[in-house]
Amino acid sequence: FHPIATVNIRPGVTNLSTIDIRDVRQFVKQPTELKSFTLEKIREVIVSANTASIIFNNLDGNNDRTYLLIANVVGSANVQIILRFNEDAVDTNYTSQNIEQAGATITGTNNTTATGIQLSTAFAANVRNGIYATIAVEHPGDADVTANRKFVTGHSGTSSRQDIFSGQWLNQTDNVTSITIRSATATAAFDNNSTFTLYRVRGQVPITF
Questions:
Q1: With the CA atoms of 105, 110, 111 and 116 taken in that order, what torsion angle do they form, in degrees rounded to the nearest 10?
Q2: Helix, strand or coil for residue 51?
Q3: Is 8 exposed, middle or buried (0-12, 13-18, 19+ CB in 10 A)?
Q4: How far apart (Å, rounded) are the C-alpha atoms in residues 194 and 191?
Q5: Is the four-CA dihedral 146, 168, 164, 206 of positive or negative sign?
Q6: Is the pLDDT of residue 23 over 80?
Q7: What are the start-end ranges of the H helices in the chain?
């Protein structure tokens, strides 16, 4: 259970039925003070046969400035998993950093040779792998922004292995029209009943990293 709000009550008030409205109203914003944030599902993909990639097309990064990717994946191969924007496969257009924890071993990598942002350094086969990623799209004119920037941050892994990742698409293309999640080697790494869901966040100012 997650409370919507926390209300402080005046000292001496022990009966909730006697709370004065003055105790509450100072913690409640007026409608004109509230910003409108809406999480909208764009598409959910449920894999029915082994596949190497999932693509979300017809996106509009000029208006949808923040995306959320949640995936619950049955791995069919031990491979690296990457994310691409607009099907761009040029390795010099991506950079990503990963911290991987496997048992008692922790390693860090700076990847500038992958053809996408690396979401997992070693996807596990025959077990459930989770992916949670936020995707921020920024344009010149946004606060402190002078160039087109696309960032991805999040984590992935299983109960015994975790990846924390962050990365950037360096291509100066203005709009984001597609997002692809795939194995780095084109291996069919996603097994049956894997699910991939992409959401857009309406009304949110892009996050600056």
A1: 90
A2: strand
A3: exposed
A4: 6
A5: positive
A6: no
A7: 21-25
